[in-house]
């Protein structure tokens, strides 16, 4: 029964995007070579429209061998079709810290065959 529920949830994520509110839980882990640095788990609530989104909430920061902390993080981004097969996307993000906030950007193009 659990596998049927899990399959249904996964298939639901594969459907076309519909504008409105959503929840996004995402784990991001990092390594330098074979040295594990830790994991950040974003627990975001967001809203998406036609080609854009904004989300934010608490992030659990769990460094390897260190004590976990909770910070505030968020992202906003969008996608613009450039042609029938080519599109551009971008994202800006932030996370709070001990007097040292972090910021990020992401830009790219996607070509569909």
Task: Kindly describe this structure.
By secondary structure, this protein is mainly beta. It has one domain (18-111). 11% of the residues lie in helices and 64% in strands. It is built from one helix and six strands; from the N terminus they run H-E-E-E-E-E-E. The chain has a six-stranded antiparallel β-sheet, with no helix packed on it. The chain is globular and about 50 Å long. The N and C termini lie far apart (37 Å). 4% of the residues are buried.
Helix-strand blueprint:
Layout (H helix, E strand, L loop, with lengths): L1 H12 L6 E13 L2 E14 L3 E12 L5 E13 L4 E10 L6 E10 L2
**Roughly how much helix do the residues carry, as a percent range?**
10-25%
Low-confidence stretches: 1-15
Main sheet characteristics: 6 strands, antiparallel
By secondary-structure content and strand pairing, the structural class works out as mainly beta
Mean pLDDT metric: 89
Strand tally = 6
- Strands of the widest sheet, in order across it, are 1-2-3-4-5-6
- Secondary-structure element sequence? HEEEEEE
Strand content is over 45%
Count of alpha and pi helical runs: 1
Q: CA-to-CA gap between the ends? A: 37 Å
Using only CA atoms, what is the Rg? 17 Å
When the domains are counted, the total is 1
Global morphology: globular
Keywords:
113 residues; mainly beta; 1 helix; 64% strand
Task: Give a short synopsis of this structure.
The protein has 113 residues and is mostly beta strands.
């Amino acid at each position: 029964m659990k596998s049927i529920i899990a399959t249904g949830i996964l298939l639901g994520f594969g459907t076309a995007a519909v504008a409105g509110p959503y929840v996004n839980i995402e784990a991001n882990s990092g390594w330098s070579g074979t040295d594990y640095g830790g994991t950040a788990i974003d627990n975001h609530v967001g809203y998406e429209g036609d080609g854009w989104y904004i989300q934010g909430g608490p992030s659990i920061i769990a460094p390897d061998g260190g004590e976990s902390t909770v910070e505030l993080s968020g992202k906003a981004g969008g996608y613009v079709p450039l042609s029938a097969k080519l599109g551009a996307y971008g994202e800006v993000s932030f996370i709070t810290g001990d007097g040292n906030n972090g910021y990020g950007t992401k830009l790219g193009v996607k070509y569909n065959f």
